[in-house]
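Blinded run. Sample ID left blank on purpose so nobody reads anything into the name before looking at the predicted structure. Input follows.
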Amino acid sequence: MADGRNLVGVDIGASSIKVVQLRETRKRLSVVRFGIAALPPQTIVDGHIMNRAAVIEALSSIWSTQRIPARDVSIGVYGQSVIVRKITVPIMTAAELAEQITWEAEQHIPFDIKVMNIDYEVLRRRPEAGQMDLLLVAAKKDEINDYASVVREARIKPQIVDINAFSVQNAFEFVHGLPDDQTIALLNVGAAVSSLNIVSRGISAFTREVTNAGNTVTEEIQRQLGVSFEQAEQMKIVSSQGAAVPEQVHQVVSQACDALAGEIQRSLDFYLATSGEAEIQRIYVCGGSAYLAPLVSAVEKRARVPVMVLDPLATLAVDPKTVNEADLRGRAAQLCVAVGLALRTDRERRDQETRRVRVNLLAQRKETTRRPASEGSQAWLGVALVCVLLEIVGLFVWHSAMKSDLGKLTNDNAGVLAQIDKIKKDTSEHPAVKAQLAELKDREDAISKLQAARTGPTSVLLELSHILTQGRGPTVDHDKLEQLKRDDPTAVPNPNWDPRKLWLTKYTELDRSVKIEGLARDGEDIAEFMRRLGVSDLFYDVKPLPVSEASDKDTKINLKQFAVSAKERY
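Blinded prediction complete.
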């Protein structure tokens, strides 16, 4: 039996609102109410509510037509305003963690923590290493308050604000459990956004959202067949039901689904490259677009693993007095987020062991100052600091030698320029002098190229030292960075990242292509290092190479041994 009463799950999506109410019976949970109301186009854009009146009207309509008596609800959010990080901290008590979490969040969230709502879930404790893994989630207060206020205006009481990707995970866990020996991918393909959550050995290890989803398929039909968006949407739905549509519709749907599958595969490849995992055993698809057969087959073909449509209702009973069971089960995949939200209760205990993710972005936590870390963590930081200092000293010595050579080249170049000016002044027409001028010009060009070849690597190594220096970061154009914050906040480097969690062991360059190898505490530190390389003016085409596990023989701390390839620009 669950602690407390189940909340009503409310999934506010880009094209519709889905509502599910569960109730505990003697045998099992039952669906006692469910409803769906369509939303006008552009009501929700990138997870932001643009048409409050439409959302309020849809919620009120569902509560009225379905006669839902309960008013306490759990709602889900998604989009670029939501940030998810998996972090590692020293083992501490629940009270200590509650005090420490704000400072920890400041190290991993690339925004002012004062404008964010944060929460966390303890994923795993590792006493042998003196550490524990946390799932840290954050969202902008304005967005959370916007959703909560809209729901309240419909005379409904939000008790929990969850994240859609974890609602899907909770629904999956309720039906299938979470395997301890496998890695699975949960793919929720909605109208505007596709969210990917990779669960490894029962723990969420990687989440990502892509803005290629069901609407992209509809827009492609609209563009190629020259019909309205509403007509294209209807063609897409009819084609998924096996009804007769023009052959071109099937071709367009297949092409669009293959493009979406390609984006999903790139995310899967990134996870496999940075996590050290060998493979993903199975992919489960849900959401309104899960019924597109070409999508399931395209994902299966690219990933080369079995793909199944997730049914969140498989183990739930249905109350025939209040619910049309045929209609409910026909929309099962579309209701996955709402079911996951409906599994949340009004009295959840954080100290109770569970496989579910129970975050609540409505909860406000007390902000505190930093507390001292454990002795084991301090020892590790000391080792890391020594490594960084040695690297900086080496860079300084190397740079000094290069600076001396550069000074000599500069002096030589100045002498050549003086000779050219003198010859130009003496005569500019004499053939012999012209030949001498051409020869000196060739020498000047050669020296300039040599100078660039000497100073370029120096600039790159200095840039690396800036990237790995706390409080500095990569060289990046300010306007470019501001635009990136608007387009994709998750790609913005975190200014509070502690570079002592990662250090480099090898740097190889050939024809302005580099391979950088090193060690890091976890995958998030590797991802942050790659984010910094990716926005730097001196690096481009940054790609991860396979990651392997490593262990420090002195401190016994588990580390990630990684490699990154990139191209230099100088």
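Unblinding after everyone has recorded impressions. The radius of gyration is 29 Å.
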